[in-house]
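F.,

This is the one I mentioned.
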């Protein structure tokens, strides 16, 4: 099997800001697995929060010389293993002339309603973003500053009837979150994602959680689950954190068995990055696979988004 990796850049439709910084483009790595009469592809988004760069992840991919079953032992959970694992799944499907879900023994995936993310900005700008997207079925609001109350109030004015989930991206202190929590409930927020920094979230086990709390940066793969007990109600599963579809499906099964709700999320990438996650996103509490909606350009044969949500990929894209 021949493995190659290339860098691709997709311009964003507008500046995208979270509590850790802003970006104007999505820089991704595309992996190709070629051999035995078939070609498989996968995409990953290296993430600086987890110590990844385009160069470091490229080196991990290029340094892999084993076979597909060797991936969990050869590479840690993360972007490199994700791109390779998804490329191998695509290769297996192409070689067999079947869809990935058939190989997994799963029903064909159905469209899923996905959140649409509003970037962190001034209250005025966020109110305008909310009003512009007030017909969407679910909005995800990026927050994570000490001055978030006015932003949340502004979003609710712009979109008074839309269900909202909030992502603080580790940006709050325990005191800020304790102060905001009653207001989040008052404003109809359905869930808050990673309010406190990973590793500094013990307070979540000591307070009542009338508003469900979701672990994102605190949850990577199945090994993360013991550390979440008593602190979180939902886990956000992202392929770039788990190291691919194989571990993501295993994490989903174990999380559900342990009583967690599941959210399926994404980094800001193209339709190729989202495609495997559409399989994962069946029968979960929240789906957040809006990466392609934030782009000004996308892959050939992109995912379809309509009133039913995000559809599973065409075979020409992946799987």
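My design for it:
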């Amino acid at each position: 099997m021949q493995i190659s990796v290339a860098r691709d850049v997709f311009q964003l439709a507008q500046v995208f800001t979270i509590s850790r910084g802003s970006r104007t483009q999505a820089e991704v790595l595309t992996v190709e697995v070629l051999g035995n009469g078939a070609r498989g592809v996968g995409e990953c988004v290296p993430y600086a929060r987890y110590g990844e760069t385009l160069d470091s992840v490229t080196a991990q991919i290029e340094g892999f010389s084993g076979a597909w079953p060797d991936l969990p032992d050869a590479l840690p959970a993360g972007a490199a293993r994700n791109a390779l694992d998804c490329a191998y799944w695509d290769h297996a499907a192409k070689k067999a002339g079947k869809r990935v879900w058939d190989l997994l023994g799963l029903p064909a995936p159905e469209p899923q309603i996905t959140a649409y993310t509003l970037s962190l900005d001034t209250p005025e700008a966020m109110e305008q973003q909310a009003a512009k997207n007030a017909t969407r079925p679910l909005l995800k609001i990026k927050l994570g500053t000490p001055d978030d109350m006015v932003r949340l109030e502004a979003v609710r004015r712009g979109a008074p009837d839309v269900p909202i989930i909030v992502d603080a991206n580790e940006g709050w202190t325990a005191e800020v979150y304790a102060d905001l929590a009653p207001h989040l409930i008052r404003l109809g927020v359905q869930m808050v994602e990673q309010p406190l920094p990973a590793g500094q979230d013990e307070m979540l086990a000591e307070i009542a959680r009338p508003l469900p709390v979701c672990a994102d940066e605190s949850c990577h793969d199945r090994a993360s689950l013991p550390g979440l007990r008593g602190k979180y109600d939902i886990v956000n599963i992202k392929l770039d954190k788990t190291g691919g579809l194989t571990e993501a499906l295993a994490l989903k099964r174990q999380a559900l068995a342990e009583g967690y709700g599941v959210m399926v999320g994404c980094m800001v990438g193209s339709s190729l990055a989202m495609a495997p996650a559409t399989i994962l996103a069946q029968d979960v509490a929240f789906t957040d696979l809006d990466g392609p909606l934030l782009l000004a350009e996308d892959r050939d044969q992109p995912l379809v988004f309509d009133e039913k949500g995000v559809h599973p990929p065409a075979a020409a894209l992946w799987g």
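The CA atoms of residues 301 and 317 lie 6 Å apart.

Talk soon.
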